[in-house]
From TrEMBL:
It comes from Roseofilum reptotaenium AO1-A. Residues 2-84 form the GST N-terminal domain. Signal peptide: none annotated. The lineage of its organism: Bacteria, Bacillati, Cyanobacteriota, Cyanophyceae, Desertifilales. This is Glutathione S-transferase. PANTHER family: GLUTATHIONE S-TRANSFERASE-RELATED (PTHR44051), HYPOTHETICAL GLUTATHIONE S-TRANSFERASE LIKE PROTEIN (PTHR44051:SF2). Belongs to the GST superfamily. GO terms for molecular function: transferase activity. Residues 86-186 form the GST C-terminal domain.
């Protein structure tokens, strides 16, 4: 198996997803720090890897790059115990991963970024406050599901759980109080 190169920014939840998946699969990888705060993801050499200028990116072979954390998770997990064989369960994995990108990440990850990574809570306070309702709504969807299920897909651990865990476990860094979400915390 070839060594994967992971272009990553350590505080990133999206990068964390990929690191967690690789580690749980027992895959060795070379991690290459790309400091987004210093504009390193906007440099020409990085834009050749991901024209969107974002991390994470994996290089699976020289000049073969894959970006978008959830696409990377699907790629890495196919054929493993983290990705189901049945098309129904695969669709459920994708369902939760789409939820994570569109109903969870924008409301939980971005306040965390402003508060704990940029350290500009006061400057972004209005935007953070506007996201709070959507963030708690996303957490409530997760909480309701986890009250009756141990995992997000067919009661088995999958990359959907990895995707949702990444920003949920650091939600307090974005000002979220998880004390009322017992099922999430289990």
């Amino acid at each position: 198996m070839k060594m994967i190169k992971l272009y990553d920014f350590l505080p990133s939840g999206n990068g964390y997803k990929v690191r967690l998946c690789l580690t749980q699969l027992g895959r060795e990888f070379e991690r290459i720090e790309v400091n987004i705060l210093k504009g390193e993801s906007r440099r020409v050499e990085f834009l050749l890897k991901n024209p969107n200028g974002r991390i994470p990116v994996i290089e699976v072979d020289p000049d073969f790059f894959l970006f978008e954390s959830n696409a990377i998770l699907i790629y890495l997990s196919q054929g493993t115990n983290l990705y189901p064989d049945s098309s129904w369960e695969q669709a459920q994995v994708l369902q939760w991963m789409f939820f994570e990108q569109y109903s969870h990440e924008p409301y939980i990850a971005t306040p965390r970024y402003g508060i704990s990574i940029l350290g500009k809570e006061q400057e972004y306070q209005e935007a953070i406050t506007q996201k709070r309702q959507g963030g708690y709504a996303a957490l409530e969807v997760m909480e309701n599901h986890l009250r009756i299920h141990d995992f997000f897909v067919e009661n088995r651990y999958t990359v959907a759980d990895i995707a949702l865990f990444a920003y949920t476990h650091v939600a307090p860094e974005g000002g979220y109080d998880l004390s009322g979400f017992g099922a999430i915390q289990n």
